[in-house]
Design goal:
heterotrimer; A alpha/beta; B alpha/beta; C alpha+beta; B: alpha/beta; Rossmann fold; 2 domains; seven-stranded mixed β-sheet; six-stranded antiparallel β-sheet; 8 helices; 24% helix; C: alpha+beta; four-stranded antiparallel β-sheet; 11 helices; 20% strand; binds flavin-adenine dinucleotide; binds iron/sulfur cluster; binds FE2/S2 (inorganic) cluster
């Protein structure tokens, strides 16, 4: 069954809203109601981790049954959230999609080099083996996977959803990729001063918009320490020292919880390498003898 | 009033007196504040309904309606303990330094109201701007018609300016004080302000009604004023939004294209009617 | 009109730096640490130029926590020069000027603006999300600039627009020559070419009503504030006291109307508790209320909010441009 058929069935079974993706080129999240079921799509531009919405504005409490579309990486968030009792399992129907990897749309535009926005109906994009095939108004472009894939996907250990109620598409049988903390090790090989210099330069750029926090599906505390005035953990002034404090707090609050979905790094408007920071913490945790993310894998119900 | 060249720079001032108004888990105290610079203090003129930003160094600023009449030699504010600044104020002693910015806001259009009957309807701490207005009217009694005063609070313990209110009751022909629920020994009105308003039933003829209090009270008071025949242009109220700059720059107090700090806090209901989501 | 051969670019920047704090374009922002050649090529940085006149964190005054006194130190700033600032960013500053100078003059903003010289550059290569021409400016809009420049092949040609601008050109006069007639003609051609390249939309602001369906897009908004922090015209700020041991500072700091805490009142009541209310406020402020107040849109068409919204919420779509 394809996604729309699956969704139709779920709506018939009483699901009120499905948080999914819409659009071909202009891909966005959608809170689809039954009458919008045809809008639901999935393609290699479906980059967002939609589980973030489950904990936003008390959404789960307002709706009886919610469907949510997840890729392999996103599905790990569901496990983590369930582990933390963020919501009850029977509120949500997990629509799992085995994923060949996602791409940043800007990369495509850059590669194609055309000065315009494409209309959704003139644009097609899909994986064909190790190639990404893009068709625009009949013209077709091909890109090798390694060149265009998002970094996080290159080391993704879980292309198949680790938790789902319904599966759309076939499970991916591919050699297991492995996170070997290459980037972290590279940084670790630098001298202390060099490392310090590297991070200072990055932290200096941060504008403390807190988008990295807001997009993170696992940053959902109702009263975030960052907004607390008494005691004040981080001053509001946007300066290097306060920025460092912010990033340390963020990283440590996510230690052993971060699932590596990469959303924080993706949204950062000034391109801080947040995944590197998260991975560093993850590696540290692993080196201490904890598994950085290893929970029993639950398949279906 | 000459405005400070730098609108963010407050005037040094000190607390001359502190009076407990309400002892509760949300206590209210009235502070008498005097600017350090005598000349400035003399020149500190304002209209009833205008506000001041009162700040404590190292804590921050908060906005309060001025409770004293324009001709007083000080600035009085009544403060309910809510958060950072208000708590710090409550912890102050007589003589402590504070900093004042203002006056802020438009104030009541008292000149426009000359020759009219005045109906004042207040609830809880909402009485503060109306106290300033009341004394202003007393000082200019010849210019205004009849005065009706209605004031209510949850209980007798929650009434602000208790002595003064009872004094006003003795002085004025039509002053009505109410509390929400029966209490032993209470001989005045019992019931919500909007209901007392209906009982008192002031005439809309050549009148303006000014109401200030919690949003829910304001809503019902306005409804009832309608029933009594008041037109939207005869009804005035004050609004409350979170504020920071107080001069129409920081953006947080807007309702549509109006900024409560600058275009308000006093609005006629005629204006409010045209705005979406006022409260 | 004067011209500078690009071969002399390094010397040009060097000369200017002798007298001014020269800021120019890097990938991220306007900075004094920029690459001369790259600065000329990058269309616009991720962050807008507003922070030069309206810094993200700005001390209003210091105070002494022990004596509880305010300490005002009027420090004299040296003059800033914004090199190659783009029309839309200058437009952003023009819009901010309206806000900060209306009724009560904001001295911090006014001082900084007075202290800044704008050497603007026409855009030869507008980007995918530029839509300045739909909000009534062009890639060669000059208002608010002191010097207006156009990059023409191997040269940059200059036009001084103000007294300050003339002084700047005077300063670097030794490097300049007269622009040729050809170059002047070519510049005009470039301007029109760029103008045609910018995508033009027919915005329909009448659909921005209070109960409009367009606000439903707020369902996917993350309240992340990126659109407001990067926007050249957004100017919400907060004022807070920050304390150290014996002294402290009252600072003002950018805030965002997309955050729920922004309007939260001390009583717990929040007039804009929901994302729908906040998104609506941001867009209506720019396209309806600002228009009521100042008879123009508070949008320069820079496209930053469209490019950097993490969930692809597009102003252009909201305004019915697509
Ligand atoms: C026009 C106008 C007139 C007013 N007139 C009066 C008046 O006459 N009398 C009067 O009493 N009030 C008046 N107010 C209300 C008064 O301004 C507020 O109560 C005051 O601003 C609260 O300031 P605060 O610093 O004590 O609270 P804040 O601390 O600034 O609280 C602001 C927000 O921060 C949060 N917060 C508070 N404390 C903490 C904490 N410890 N940790 C984390 N978050 C916290 C609160 O939830 C609140 O949303 C008026 C308001 C307006 C707009
Ligand atoms: S998203 Fe980037 S700029 Fe914003 S707070 Fe996070 S790291 Fe800083
Ligand atoms: S910290 Fe970043 S990578 Fe980790 S779960 Fe949150 S958004 Fe995803
Ligand atoms: S609203 Fe968007 S396009 Fe308009 S000026 Fe702001 S960031 Fe640029
Ligand atoms: S929006 Fe217009 S002015 Fe701004 S960079 Fe693009 S083309 Fe230039
Ligand atoms: S950038 Fe996008 S997601 Fe973030 S607050 Fe703005 S509209 Fe919402
Ligand atoms: S309080 Fe800043 S605009 Fe009203």
């Amino acid at each position: 069954m394809d996604l729309v058929e699956v969704a139709k069935k779920l709506f018939d079974e009483g699901v009120e809203v499905i948080i999914g993706y819409q659009g071909n080129f202009n891909v966005k999240p959608i809170f689809a109601k039954a009458n919008e079921v045809d809008k639901l799509t999935f393609n290699p531009l479906c980059i967002y981790n939609l589980t973030n919405y489950l904990t936003m504005e008390g959404f789960v409490d307002k709706v009886d049954k919610i469907g949510v579309v997840v890729k392999g990486c996103d599905s790990k968030t569901i496990l983590q959230l369930l582990d933390e009792n963020a919501f009850s399992r029977d509120k949500i129907v997990v629509i799992g999609i085995p994923c060949n990897g996602v791409i940043d749309v800007n990369k495509i535009v850059e590669e194609i080099g055309e000065f315009r926005e494409f209309k959704d109906n003139e644009f097609k994009i899909k994986w064909e083996g190790d190639e990404l095939v893009v068709e625009v108004n009949g013209k077709s472009y091909k890109f090798p996977k390694d060149k265009i894939l998002l970094e996080k996907c290159k080391v993704c250990e879980t292309p198949n959803p680790v938790v789902y109620d319904v599966l759309v598409g076939n499970l991916i049988q591919q050699p297991h990729r492995k996170e070997e903390f290459k980037a972290v090790k590279e940084i670790e090989s630098l001298s202390l001063e060099q490392r310090w210099e590297f991070w200072i330069k990055e932290f200096e750029k941060c504008i403390r918009c807190y988008a990295c926090r807001n997009v993170c599906p696992l940053c959902y505390c109702e009263s975030c320490v960052l907004e607390r005035l008494e005691p004040e953990f981080v001053r509001r002034a946007v300066r290097l020292d306060e920025n460092i404090a912010y990033h340390l707090i963020r990283a440590y609050h996510l230690a052993n919880r971060c699932v590596g979905c990469g959303e924080c790094e993706r949204v950062c408007p000034v391109n801080l390498p947040l995944s590197l920071l998260n991975k560093k913490v993850a590696k540290e945790v692993k080196d201490l003898g904890f598994s950085e993310f290893l929970k029993p894998i639950e398949v279906g119900r | 009033m000459v405005l400070q060249l730098n609108p963010y720079l407050p005037y040094p001032a000190y607390i001359r007196g502190i009076r407990d108004e309400v002892l509760d888990k949300r206590p209210i105290k009235t502070f008498t504040i005097e600017l350090k610079d005598e000349k400035l203090m003399k020149n500190f003129t304002f209209k009833p309904g205008q506000c001041v930003m009162v700040g404590i160094i190292g804590v921050g600023e908060a906005i309060f309606a001025i409770a004293s009449p324009p001709n007083a030699d000080c600035i009085e504010i009544s403060v309910m303990k809510m958060g950072r600044v208000t708590t710090a104020l409550h912890n102050c002693n007589v003589g402590d330094k504070v900093f004042v910015r203002g006056p802020i806001g438009n104030g009541f259009p008292v000149e426009e109201w000359e020759g009219k009957n005045i109906v004042l309807i207040a609830g809880g701490i909402g009485i503060t701007p109306l106290r300033s207005l009341y004394y202003y009217i007393c000082d200019n009694r010849g210019k205004y018609g009849e005065l009706t005063f209605i004031y209510g609070a949850r209980s007798s313990k929650d009434l602000c300016f208790k002595e003064e209110i009872f004094e006003i009751e003795r002085k004025e022909k039509t002053c009505h004080i109410t509390i929400d629920f029966e209490e032993e020994g209470w001989t005045r009105h019992v019931g919500f302000v909007p209901d007392v308003l209906m009982k008192v039933s002031p005439s809309p003829k050549n009148s303006v009604a000014i109401t200030c209090g919690p949003p829910i009270m304001i809503r019902y008071v306005i409804q009832n004023l309608h029933k009594l025949g008041f037109k939207p242009s005869q009804i005035y109220t004050t609004l409350e939004k979170r504020m920071k700059c107080g001069i129409g720059k920081c953006g947080r107090c807007n309702i549509g294209s109006l900024y409560v700090c600058k275009d308000g806090p006093v609005f006629s209901y005629e204006t409010l009617q045209k705005l979406p989501e006022v409260f | 009109m004067k011209a500078l051969d690009k071969a002399n670019l390094d010397k040009f920047v060097e000369l200017l730096s002798e007298e001014f704090n020269v800021y120019s374009i890097t990938d991220t922002d306007f900075s004094t640490d920029f690459d001369n050649n790259k600065a000329l090529e990058i269309l616009k940085p991720i962050k807008s130029a507003k922070e030069i006149v309206f810094p993200q964190t700005e001390p209003l005054f210091k105070f002494d926590l022990v004596g509880k006194e305010i300490v005002v130190n009027e420090k004299q700033n040296s003059t800033n020069l914004m090199l190659w600032i783009k029309p839309c960013d200058v437009r952003g500053i023009n819009i901010l000027k309206k806000v900060f100078e209306k009724d009560v003059k904001d001295v911090y903003f006014a001082n900084k603006l007075n202290n800044t010289i704008f050497v603007g550059l026409a855009c030869n290569n507008p980007s995918r999300n530029c839509f300045c021409t739909s909000v009534s400016i062009t890639p060669y809009y000059k208002e608010g600039m002191d010097v207006f420049a156009t990059s023409v092949n191997g040269a940059i040609i200059f036009e001084a627009l103000t007294e300050k601008g003339k002084e700047v050109l005077e300063k670097v006069n030794s490097l300049l020559r007269d622009a040729t007639k050809d170059e002047v003609e070519k510049a005009k051609e470039i301007h029109l070419q760029a103008e045609n390249k910018v995508r033009r939309y027919n915005f329909n602001t009448s659909r921005l009503t209070w109960d409009s369906d367009v606000w439903r897009i707020s369902e996917i908004c993350l309240s992340c504030g990126i659109c407001t922090y990067l926007c050249p015209t957004c100017h919400c700020f907060d004022i807070i006291d920050e304390n150290y041991v014996y002294e402290g500072e009252r600072i003002r700091i950018w805030d965002s109307c997309m955050y729920s805490e922004y309007t939260l009142q001390a009583s717990g009541h929040n007039p804009r508790a929901y994302r729908l209310q906040r998104l609506r406020n941001r867009i209506m402020h720019k396209f309806v209320w600002f228009k009521e107040m100042f008879d123009e849109y508070a949008c320069t068409g820079c496209g930053r909010c469209v490019s950097y919204c993490p969930v692809n919420i597009s102003l252009i779509e909201i305004l019915g441009g697509v």
